[in-house]
Each structure stands twice: as structure tokens, then as C-alpha cells.
Amino acid sequence: MVEVRTDAGQAGTPELTPNPAFPTARLVERRDMTEDLMVIKLEVSEKFDFKPGQYCTLGLGKIERAYSIVSAPYEKYLEIFVELVPDGELTPKMWDLKTGGLMSVRPRAKGIFTKDKKMHHHFMLSTVTGLAPSMSMVRQYLHDGGHEGSEEKQVFYIMYGASYIDELTYDVELQELAEKHPDVVKFVPTISRPTESRNDGWTGATGRVNTIAEEYLEKFSLPKDDTKVYACGHPGMIEDMKEKLSPEGWNFIEERFWKP
To answer: What is the pTM of this model?
Structure first.
């Protein structure tokens, strides 16, 4: 069950005080997807420009961390998909933040994990929160009408892996996009623990993303000279895919998360 938090106010402890040197990001919405996964939306105090696929740097107290942005640049709020790490320095503090509470955000987005406009096929490998940059790219592309200037049509092949069904936070949105734009969005969610009771009723693909990715590269008949492979999420998935695909001549880019 998804719980939408509407409680207001912010604890006054130093740990929950934003850095006054930077713009603020006010928490306007929070959805708890599981006990350790949440989606938050933030209202930035000043204009915040970014490219789809980039990340922002959020902070509380003296602790800052980078988070890939789920939302597209055209959207009103910054949307961030966060995983709780109990012994992390920042995420436990973020879990205590209430609606209306403030974080700091550095004024410039960063990152080169963005859509390669020279390529027409985008093969995106993601695990849980690693889906964020892919969502931003797809949302913006479709918002722009499915084309950019004189570009030919782009196609996004999104492979989204998790251990459990309820961790596939954006599966409904992606499935709807795939049905509405079948020539632009190809969506393959996969579960790595299909026999566990938490995944009862699952009828989709099974296995870790990195164990089935090559099968789908072949299934989609993707051309190496016109395909970009994007990997974001679990370091083990990224490393495995890099070792398998880079020597084969695939154009590969990765995004790794900072310590939480």
C-alpha cells in the first residue's frame, strides 16, 4: 500500500536545518512505497535548471548527498526516489522530515548521464531507485512531442529490476506509457525472487536485470552503432553489464550513487 504523508511542520533540531548558503527545497509531498522506499516532491526556492538524467545535491545540517532526479525539467516540483539506509548519514534524517520541512539544494544540477542525441535507441538498465534518470528522460521526450527538432524518433527500452513487486515504484506509469506510445517506450519489469510469497501473482519476467539483459538486446534486434546502453542502480548490476557489453562494442554509460 502507498501511504501519502500530509503531516505538517519540521523538527527544529540542527540535523534537520538546511544549509543557509544554498537555496531551499521544501517538502510538498511524500509517498511511502515500502518501509524503506519513498518518493518525495520538493519545491525549490529559486529557479532550478537541469537536463533530464542529471542529479541534484540535497542536504540537511552539514550532510549532503546526490540524488538523481525523477521529474522532467518541465515539471513544477523536483521528484526524488529515495531508499532508506538505516546506518546512512542523510537518509534517516530525510525520513524524519515532515511535509513543509526544508532541505538545502545546491543551485546547479550535475551529471553527464543524459540522453545521447546521436543515438536513436536507448537501452536502459535500472534497479529500484536507479530508474530515476530514465524516468526523467522519457517524461521530457514525450512532453516535447516525441521528437526534438529534426531528430528522428527515439526509442526507449527500459529494463527495471527489483527483488519484490512493491519495489517497482514506477511500473504502472511505465506500463501505461508503453501502451500509449508502443513505438517509443518498451518496458520490461523483472523480479529476482519470484518464488517468495511477497511476489505472489507475478507473471512477468524473472531474474536479475544483468542476467537477462543480453537476451533482450537480441530480442529487440538493437544495432550497436545506433544504441546507447545506460546502467544505473546496484553496483553489481552495473559492473556485470559493463564487463559483458563494453568488450562487445556496445556504447555504455553508467551512473553510480554516492554513499547515502
So the answer is: 0.90
